[in-house]
Amino acid sequence: MGAWGTGPFENDDAADWAWELEAAEDRTALLLETFAAATGEAPADLPEASTAVAAAAWLASGMPGGDAVEVDWAEEPPHPTPPAIDDQLRAAAVAALDAALAEGSGWREAWAQEDETAPIAAAERLRDRLRGEPDEGADAP
Fold first, then answer.
1. Residue 7, in any domain of the structure
2. For residue range 49-64, what is the model confidence (pLDDT) as tens digits?
3. At 100, phi and psi to the nearest 5?
4. Which parts of 2-138 fold into alpha helices (H)?
5. Region of residue 7 (left: phi > 0; alpha: psi -120 to 50; beta: else)
6. Which InterPro entries does the UniProt entry name for this protein (predicted)?
7. Closest CA to 9 of 128, 122, 139
8. What's the predicted TM-score (pTM) here?
């Protein structure tokens, strides 16, 4: 039986990707490959989009003020620290989230079938954060 929850790592594809992340020697290259896989087809397939959403959430967790991302590790390996975000990573992550959020993407359609809007709204906020846009849900100064 597969895992399927509303968090970015609460599905089998993202959980498998987390193990790949843990083992990767070059995590930036893995991120770029993951984001490219999600943007390679239009619309994005469910596995590629699921891993791209997880990768973007993990990347954003390393931003100043970023929220920690809960990863359900099967064992307790050291939790990797996200790399510093440069323009290339930011653009790749945003493009991958655009692909995941696009009408007709496997990821978006899976949530529509579940009648679940929270993951879509969370991915939209994540995309806005990576774009540098203010969080509409945050308290104003």
1. no
2. 999 999 999 998 888 7
3. -65, -35
4. 12-23, 27-39, 46-61, 87-101, 106-113, 118-131
5. beta
6. DUF4259
7. 122
8. 0.85
